[in-house]
Amino acid sequence: MRWKNVSGIIIVTALLLLVSQFLIQPVMASSNSINNSCADCHRKLVFTTEEQRKFVDIRIKHLESGISCSIVCHEDKLNKSIASTYAMWSISTHALFEVTCDKCHGGNKLANTKTEAHVGISNKSIVRAVTPEMCGKCHVPELEEFKSSSHFKKLESTEEGPAPACVTCHQAHSVRVLTSSEIEDFCSNCHNRITGIDPAVPKKAEAALSSVKELQNEIAKARSLIITTKSKGENVKEAEASLESARSVLKHIPSVWHRFNLSYFETEVQKGISDAKNAEKHVPSTEKTTEPAKSPGFEGLLLITGLIAIYLLKRH
Hints:
Structural class: mainly alpha
Radius of gyration: 35 Å
Oligomer: single chain
Distance between the termini: 122 Å
């Protein structure tokens, strides 16, 4: 009987422990997971339909052109696409580096309730004209270069016509970085024969960005050559100095691009390419030059023929 009582107590205790695990773990999980209420709330509203995705693209184009969407016209679709903002952000570079909603919109990302999380958020949308200063809080070199551009001057003025801001090229939440294959079509939105705004720019922009690939390749070649030569004990300090100069150019290329002066940009890229090629030239050659073996001349052939003849005569 005692054994039955003991076994019964053990079974009951085990059941209690099992139940407690199910009760405690959700509480612990919920307390630990609330570290970014923006994401906790908005990621549940992920859009999935192709129609919603098309609407998001249309709305972004409207906003970039200064056309405000009508709530009467789009109310239902706007409600359906609430999640699009989070969905675009979640696959962006900002998400990768944990730049969350509050960095641009304000609010308290650590709050547990919607009301507390939204404290400090403006009821007005972020205006395109103020995005350079806002983005410049993190992207300081890019802002400094952008302020010297004709794009920024147009944005600051009250003149009519397209005036690009940060979100025009990078978009507000997807934060895209355009490639050389994309830049031509993108610049053509403003620079074309219809607007009359320098239609030659798109082709020049594509060529300028493509030249960066050549700079990257030359740097890679110089680096590989320097590593190989240095491992053999050779002095490569002069080559390393030229390579570092080329790397410095490449490092600042993204910010230099925001000056939107294609001639200046191309000059900087070519300077980097020249530095990289100089690095290759300054690598000391480790190969020993050996004189090519001389082929036997006429006199040598006569000597060899005579020796063979003497050998054959002796045998006979």
